[in-house]
Specification:
Blueprint lengths: L9 H8 L4 E6 L5 H14 L3 E6 L2 H13 L6 E5 L4 E4 L4 E6 L11 E6 L8 H9 L3 E9 L6 H10 L6 E6 L9 H10 L2 H7 L14 H6 L12 E5 L8 E6 L5 E7 L5 H8 L7 E5 L4 H10 L4 E4 L5 H15 L6 H8 L1 E5 L4 E5 L8 H17 L12
Parallel strand pairs: 1-7, 1-8, 2-5, 2-6, 6-7, 9-12, 12-13
Antiparallel strand pairs: 3-4, 4-5, 9-10, 10-11, 14-15
Helix pairs in contact: 9-10, 11-13, 12-13
């Protein structure tokens, strides 16, 4: 039929050849979850079955849909609807893609097979499956994803593994189980990523709070009872960008122990922010958030004779900043007070194959300004102060 796939590797074959109606598949990044999903969907469609594919977000569903369509020879296809993310074959088989953010749109027709991808990220997976999908499902379902804390996906996996679910198999694979993915790439990630993130994303390990990249014991071991009285050798400054945000300046001493903190809630008043920050010692290095309103503040400090490194937050630079800081926390290289630790306890990471974001849950008085400020201070200390580099004229992007 002119449909070409790479040969499934042995662990993918275990999934394909298993006869259970339901399968819970926990696997690390780059294991090959997408390919094995495509194989199964295509097999069902070529048998004339109606199938569905659910992802946490619309953009992921759209990406998978585009990739999936490319595998089919156009002579097999009777119709493609890009706006509704639907593909239909001439034999009557079909696949429709849905977002977990609009779960009620699934209602209305029966399906012979379903795949729930990144199942740990689906909001209220228990209701999505039992309340919406299951009543429409005439056949099997695969739940696929990496661990995301203690949620319904975790419960499904554990119950299936323990034999508590009828006609359901549980699978657990790491990225190492994909023989086509270079081991050296995995080892590079092990060295570059915080340990808790590597274990979750590549080893597919469940943890109590997988969304927090800081381990509880690491946070606790670095707390000091109060600010050091030694002189600060570097400041990290996170600039407020909204009415519910804070500008925070944190200093650390020559031993990377927190020695200064000031915090202001200033809404869109660059002059006042600059005036308060200008009170800091102009001869001490400052790594400043140069994103948004931080541009004006950074320029003002530079014009007033401060040693400043502007740090522009991008999709690449902020994860690198936080990764480096997490590693410092893991190794015990940086010390901080309880108020910073309190933000770290509720810090969150969201990760997929193309992007990673950090921060604390909005609302309820939650903020991440102190964590960001200390991460900036650690960056300046570890990159310049501890090895004696010069910092004038540098910008980090």
């Amino acid at each position: 039929m002119n449909i070409l796939f790479n040969t499934p590797h042995p662990k993918q074959l275990e999934i394909i050849q298993d006869k259970s109606k339901y399968k819970v598949i926990v696997a690390g990044r780059r294991f090959g979850k997408t390919l094995v999903s495509m194989m199964k969907l295509m097999d069902c469609m070529l048998r004339g079955q109606h199938t569905m594919y659910l992802t946490p977000e619309y953009d992921l569903a759209k990406t998978f849909f585009t990739d999936f369509v490319a595998f089919f020879n156009e002579t097999l296809i009777s119709g493609i609807n890009k706006s509704e993310l639907t593909i239909k074959l001439k034999n009557g088989g079909s696949c429709k893609f849905f977002s977990g953010m609009a779960i009620e749109k699934i209602r209305g027709r029966e399906y012979q097979f379903a795949i729930i991808d990144e199942a740990g990220d689906i909001d209220d997976l228990e209701y999505a499956f039992n309340g919406v999908i299951r009543p429409l499902l005439m056949g099997g379902c695969w739940f696929i994803g990496t661990p995301k804390g203690n949620n319904y996906f975790t419960k499904l996996y554990n119950n299936a593994k323990d034999g508590n679910l009828q006609d359901t198999s549980a699978f657990h694979f790491t990225t190492y189980d994909n023989p086509f993915y270079p081991v050296e790439k995995i080892e590079e990630s092990r060295l570059d990523m915080p340990d808790v993130l590597f274990r979750q994303e590549f080893l597919a390990e469940f943890t109590a709070n997988a969304s927090n990249p800081f381990k509880y014991e690491d946070i606790v071991k670095n707390i000091v009872p109060g600010l050091s009285t030694d002189k600060s050798v570097c400041y990290g400054i996170d600039i407020s960008n909204g009415k519910n945000d804070y500008t925070v300046a944190i200093g650390i001493n020559s031993e990377a122990v927190m020695s200064h903190i000031t915090s202001w809630k200033i809404q869109n008043n660059y002059t006042e922010q600059s005036s308060k920050l200008n009170e800091l010692d102009s001869n001490v290095l400052k790594v400043v958030d140069a994103t948004g309103s931080g541009v004006s503040v950074t320029e003002t400090l530079e014009n007033n004779g401060h040693y400043v490194i502007p740090y522009l937050f991008t999709a690449k630079s902020k994860p690198n900043l936080i990764y480096t800081f997490i590693q410092a926390v893991e190794s015990g290289a940086v010390k901080y007070t309880q108020e910073v630790a309190d933000e770290m306890f509720i810090y969150e990471m969201k990760y997929n194959d193309t992007n990673v974001t950090f921060g604390n849950q909005p609302g309820q008085g939650n903020h991440d300004d102190k964590v960001t400020a200390l991460a900036l201070a650690w960056y300046g200390y570890s990159t310049y102060i501890s090895i004696g580099q010069q910092w004038q004229g540098l910008t980090v992007v």
